[in-house]
Design brief:
It is built from 15 helices and 12 strands. It is an alpha/beta fold. The protein has 3 domains: 97 residues, Rossmann fold (3-Layer(aba) Sandwich), CATH 3.40.50.10800; 103 residues, Rossmann fold (3-Layer(aba) Sandwich); 86 residues, 3-Layer(aba) Sandwich (Rossmann fold). The strands form 3 sheets. A 4-stranded parallel β-sheet has the order 2-1-3-4, with helices on both faces. A 4-stranded parallel β-sheet has the order 6-5-7-8, sandwiched between helices. Strand 3, helix 4 and strand 4 form a beta-alpha-beta unit. Helix 1 crosses helix 14, helix 3 runs parallel beside helix 4 and helix 12 runs parallel beside helix 13. The longest helix is centred in the last third of the chain and has 18 residues. It is globular, with a radius of gyration of 19 Å. The protein starts with a helix and ends with a helix. The model has no long low-confidence stretch (mean pLDDT 97). The protein binds 1,3-dihydroxyacetonephosphate (13P) and iron/sulfur cluster. 1,3-dihydroxyacetonephosphate binds next to helix 3.
Length: 311
Amino acid sequence: MLTKELLDEFFELKERHDAVVLAHYYVQPDAQDLADYVGDSYFLAKKAATLDCKTLVFAGVEFMAESAKLLSPEKRVLMPEPTADCPMAHMLQKQTVDEARQKYGDDLAVACYVNSTNQMKAWSDVCVTSSNAVRIVERLPQRNVLFVPDLHLGHYIAEQVPGKNIILNDGFCPTHEAIQVREIEELLAEHPNAIVCAHPECAVWVLEKASYIGSTSGIIERCVTGKEDEYIICTVHGVLHEIEKQVEKAGDAGRKRFFFPRTTPICPNMSRVTGEKVVACLRDLSGEVFVDECYAEGAKRALERMLELAR
Ligand code: 13P
Ligand code: SF4
């Protein structure tokens, strides 16, 4: 909880620097509460591309802030915690892309999850997020699609788009991969009427237990609008903050209950982004994001293709 002094300072700094704050659902609740917009990766990338302001504070991990900078290069983009990175964003070798391109030639598209470095995006034909991946892969003209870097999201897409030959890479999110199917089974035994909502970064055995699979925003919406009383949530615990706010607004706070795996999924990078750090980066104008010029054009092209194909 931020002090009144800190909050007053925050609003004064925001005005002085003409700043808008974007936050992902996995950052600390007090950072989410300072944000003008909280959302999933796709929503935040779209917002960054259209906002009219001089400064963007991106409460999230590096690939998200970099995407915002690529789509809005004229803005100053600040990261409250500049060392917050996503390990999966580095799990791809260039050789994997080269070999697939050599094997399939023009009938190959490289689809890159937005959780990736700019260099990987530049090697690719299009970016996707968890909320638009299936739609975009369906719309690609090529039959062969190398999906990078996430193995589990790639596997989920392959099931949803059986007409395509999806070639998988071996990247993964350590936080989602750690969710054990045994823990979900135990929760289901305790709460047999609960429905399981899972992020597609979870392993296939967890996804097999899910009645709903979607992005963070999708999971939140499913929990808020669902008729059921009990929900087992297989994604990072940070989403609970928004779910509770919306459930309260809908008048369902007493009725609905939400459960997470016993080994609570916390993203160690996102959780270092706090409200105090949001204020501090605006105070010092620290954590500014710059993108490497040699990958900027290619990475931006892949992101813009995503925005075009997701429409
Ligand atoms: P969303 O696009 O669903 O918000 O997911 C981002 C992410 O990093 C999930 O781990
Ligand atoms: Fe990356 Fe996983 Fe954290 Fe999402 S939850 S930012 S995929 S480490």
